[in-house]
What we know:
Blueprint: H1 13-20, E1 24-28, E2 34-37, H2 39-45, H3 49-52, H4 57-60, H5 66-79, E3 83-85, E4 111-120, E5 123-133, H6 135-156, H7 166-183, E6 187-194, H8 197-204, H9 206-223, E7 229-234, E8 237-243, H10 247-262, E9 266-268, E10 271-273, E11 277-283, H11 291-307, E12 313-315
Parallel strand pairs: 11-12
Antiparallel strand pairs: 1-2, 1-5, 3-4, 4-5, 6-8, 6-11, 7-8, 9-10
Helix pairs in contact: 8-9
Amino acid sequence: MTTPELPLSTPSLSDLVVERVGFGLFVLDRDMNVLMWNRFMQDHSGVSAEDVIGRPIFERFPDLPRAWLARKVESVFQLGSFAFSSWEQRPYLFRFDHDRPITGGVDYMQQDCTFMPLMREREVIAVCVTVSDVTHVSVMQREREDAVAKLREYADRDGLTGIANRRFFESRLMEEFSRWQRYGGDLSVLLFDLDHFKKINDEFGHVAGDTVLRSMAQRVADVVRKQDVFGRFGGEEFALLLPCTPLDDALHVAEKIRHTIGDTPVDVQGVVVPVTASVGAAAARPGSSDYEVMINEADAALYSAKRQGRNRSVVLLHELS
């Protein structure tokens, strides 16, 4: 069985394939002149083959990354091996429009590029560049990364107040304590809780109690430093990690927080709910074996504040020695 021949005037099968493939394909010589330009490139650039073949590619596309592209092509000429560029390294080579919705979060078609040496008698005579549209892949990966980041953030956050949860707070405290052990300096922690919170729940209801907790968390979050770590320790108890902060300064922070919480009652649907807080402070000190020592000492100071009448900040005397 014989294969029918194409008329001499018709394109070859290879020409038809090059024109119809679903990715960009163009060929450059060593002077960056365009030798081939397929239909994909024409359709997405708006520049026909007749307008670009035989000319330097930068003449028609001055926005291309000139130095980067020239280095990439020259490396293929010199080494005679393939080169590749992922959208993760460089989002695009050409500023082509894409067909993804605006919500995809990308301005231009995301592209993978392959640089292939075209050889003749073991000599590279040109470089063929392919441009693949990977916008869908990049958008899906970004969405997946965003979803993972949000899940990670949710895992670190208290569901009611939106501040750090106890697990995340303790992990950061462990890190800061280890840093203090290596390099010294100052490190303090505050534990505080809302006075008579059970009475608030009993008198105003748990919905009002949740509102108070959210309000207090937001107030404190608004006054702490960026480098501090503020978290909910459980129930109505909160914790504040103060890196590079000596105990005396931590006590000033404790008083600031106590006034931030207690000076203004919380308005819960027209009901005024007075709130105060008791605060215990502790600092890392020589002889502390781990971060839990700080927590225990701050907790003891907190309960001392409760026993002394509440609505006050306390540090145990032995911490000052």
